[in-house]
Design a protein that fits this description.
Helix content: 40-55%
CATH class of one domain: Alpha Beta
Structural class: alpha/beta
CATH superfamily of one domain: Uracil-DNA glycosylase-like domain
Number of helices: 11
Distance between the termini: 122 Å
Strand order of the largest sheet: 1-3-2-4-6-5
Radius of gyration: 35 Å
Order of helices and strands: HHHHEEHHEHEHHEEHH
């Protein structure tokens, strides 16, 4: 008796022989299983491309996450600063606060850490860089006289700048420098919590207000700003160059003194 399996195998072999005689030699492709991670993806329709749509999407999300993490890292560092001294230490380590001028010193700020009046200039000059303190040159001497005229001592207020490092040639701070420095200055303002912020110069005012306008249009107005009131006047250095601005500047600081008293600022 013939074994059924052998008979079936014999029939298959005979069938294949007949097919070969009719159609010629042929081969049967062997299909191997694809890895799970490949089976679940859609490949690009580009010849020779080894990338997948899913992997490209993951790359995009990864890049976005890295960018977001970098921003959060700076904010987390700023949030961890609970005193001006801790913020100063952070600024010492912050390369993004530096300008193109090599070897400059940090000019952080000076004055009463609980001041109700905060003055913000534009950038340190040569003397400020040497001493590490804002407004110590000729413009600083004029500022001291202005403060004295409205019954303030320099020690009563807090003085800072938009930039914390001197730019080359004492030029105006450029937009990129202002943008990089702004988060640190805003944290400084939040720690001091002044009642009034007096911006000295157009660049100081437009940077904080994020409003491009002429100094003439910015003057004489008290803007709400981070729990304080902000106003703008001429930079003392500008007054040294152009004496005709001294009268409007004097009017501005008199308004500051009046508003300061109305808000209950410390005598």
């Amino acid at each position: 008796m013939i074994d059924p399996e052998e008979e079936l195998l014999s029939d298959i072999i005979q069938f294949l022989k007949n097919e070969r005689e009719i159609y010629g030699p042929f081969s049967i492709p062997v299909i191997t299983a694809m890895p799970e991670e490949i089976k679940d993806t859609d490949t690009f329709n580009e010849p020779g491309s080894s990338f997948t749509a899913k992997s490209a999407d993951l790359d995009k999300r990864s890049s976005a996450s890295k960018s977001e993490a970098m921003e959060l890292t700076l904010q987390e560092k700023l949030d961890s600063c609970t005193t001006l001294e801790s913020l100063r230490q952070l600024c010492e380590q912050a390369d993004e606060l530096r300008t193109d001028l090599q070897g400059t010193n940090l000019v952080f700020g000076v004055g009463n850490p609980h001041a109700d009046l905060m003055l913000i200039g534009e950038a340190p000059g040569e003397q400020e860089d040497k001493q590490g303190e804002p407004f110590v040159g000729a413009a600083g001497q004029l500022l001291n006289k202005i403060l004295d005229a409205i019954k303030f001592n320099r020690e009563d207020v807090y003085i800072a700048n938009i930039l914390k490092h001197r730019p080359p040639g004492n030029r105006n701070p450029n937009p990129d420098e202002r943008l990089r420095s702004l988060p640190y200055l805003l944290k400084q303002i939040d720690l001091i919590q002044p009642k009034i912020i007096l911006c000295l110069g157009k660049i100081s005012g437009t940077t904080l207000l994020k409003k491009e306008d002429t100094l003439g249009n910015l003057r004489g107005v008290f803007y709400p700003f981070r729990g304080a009131e902000l106003t703008v006047t001429y930079h003392p250095a500008a007054l040294l160059r152009n004496s005709q601005w001294k009268r409007p500047a004097w009017e501005d600081v008199q308004k500051v003194r009046k508003r300061y008293d109305e808000l209950g600022g410390k005598p």
